[in-house]
């Protein structure tokens, strides 16, 4: 008896997620997969820059404090690269302070989210809203 092949759900696109906390990154990765995205996980600034070079993410989510740097270098690198299309960038951090918010805004981040004030569901919702805004600009 022939079996029906399951229709493969089309991916909504790649999201580069830069987070050094492995528990948090896995929790958020699972939620983005459930919502149809293909998360690319990076745990250091170096691995994030390599992923930016090799992948074409639809959006970036950056933790501020990483083992080898802060996210600002990644954000500057990405925003100044001439061959990258504009995509939303979200800063996800434990540090709820005005200095980081200002720096994120100055460097072109689209959202500043404090980890303990959000959930994986809310993070996906915010990112999807940002992606829609960017796609509407095309």
Any overview of this molecule?
Helix 3 links the parallel strand 3 and strand 4. The chain has a five-stranded parallel sheet with strand order 2-1-3-4-5, sandwiched between helices. Helix content is 43%, strand content 19%. By secondary structure, the protein is α/β, with parallel strands linked by helices. The chain is globular, with a radius of gyration of 16 Å.
Quickly give the CATH architecture. 3-Layer(aba) Sandwich
H/E series, N to C?
A: EHEHEHEHEH
Name the CATH class. Alpha Beta
Q: What is the fold-level CATH name, i.e. the topology?
A: Rossmann fold
| Mean pLDDT rating | 90
User: In angstroms, what is the radius of gyration?
Assistant: 16 Å
Structural category is alpha/beta
Q: What tags apply to this protein structure?
A:
alpha/beta; 138 residues; five-stranded parallel β-sheet; 5 strands; Rossmann fold; Bact_response_regulator
Structure summarized in a few sentences:
By secondary structure, the chain is α/β, with parallel strands linked by helices. The chain is built from five helices and five strands. The protein has a single domain (13-137), classed as Rossmann fold (3-Layer(aba) Sandwich), CATH 3.40.50.2300.
């Amino acid at each position: 008896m022939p079996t029906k092949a399951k229709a493969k759900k089309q991916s909504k696109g790649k999201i580069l997620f830069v987070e050094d906390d492995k528990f948090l990154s896995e929790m958020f990765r699972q939620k983005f997969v459930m919502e149809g995205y293909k998360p690319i996980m990076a745990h250091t600034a170096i691995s994030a820059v390599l992923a930016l070079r090799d992948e074409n993410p639809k959006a970036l989510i950056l933790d501020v404090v990483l083992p080898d740097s802060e996210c600002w270098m990644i954000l500057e690198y990405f925003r100044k690269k001439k061959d990258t299309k504009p995509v939303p960038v979200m800063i996800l951090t434990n540090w709820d302070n005005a200095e980081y918010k200002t720096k994120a805004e100055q460097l072109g981040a689209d959202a500043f989210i404090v980890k303990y004030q959000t959930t994986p569901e809310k993070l996906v919702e915010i990112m999807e809203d940002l992606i829609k805004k960017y796609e509407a600009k095309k």
